[in-house]
Amino acid sequence: MSLPEPLRRRLGSFSRTVFTDSRGARPPLPGERADSEIVSSLPLQMSLYFNVYFFPFWWLSSVVMLQLKYAVLSDYYKFILVTVMILASLIEIIRLYLGYIGNLQEKVPELAGFWLLTLLLQLPIILFLLFNEGLKILPLERSVNIIFALFLIFQVIAASATLKRMVNKLATHFRLNEFDRLEEHPVREFYSLS
Prior knowledge:
Blueprint: H1 5-19, H2 42-69, H3 75-104, H4 108-131, H5 139-184
C-alpha cells in the first residue's frame, strides 16, 4: 500500500524545494557508485521502533486518565479531549507507517509526509495535552506526554536531516543520469561558430 500518485508528486516536490542542498552534493569518490550509499537513518529507525511500542502504553494511560477525570471536566473540554485523543491516535498510526516506509525504503514523499504530520499535527496536539491546564492534567498523563513530546522532537530533527540526505542523493543520481545520457547521445555542434 503506497501513497496516491498526486500526493506522492506533491510531497516529492515539497521535499526537493525544502531539503535540497543549494551548494550541491559532493561527487562520488573513485570506485564509489552514486547509488550505493544507504541514506536511511538508524537513529530515526530506532526512535520509530521504540515509539511503536510506547504508543499503546501512551494510548492506554491517556484513556484511563480521561476516564478518571471525565466527570470533573467542563463540557467543551470533554468534547475537545475526546476529539484530540481520536485524532492523535489516527495520526500516530499513519505517521508511524509513513516513517517506517519512508526511512527503510528511502522514499522521499513518505518520509516528507511523516515529517509534516509530526511537525504540523502530532507535536502541537501533544503540546496542547501537555501544557493546557484546563484539562486537569494528572501526573501520569504529564509524564507520558513529556516522553511522547521528546520522541516527536527527536523525530522531527532526525527526519529533517535524513530527508536532506535523501534529496541530495536523488539529485546527484539524477544529475549523473543526465550526464550519462549526454555522453551516450552528444549534442551536435550547436554552439559552433562555423
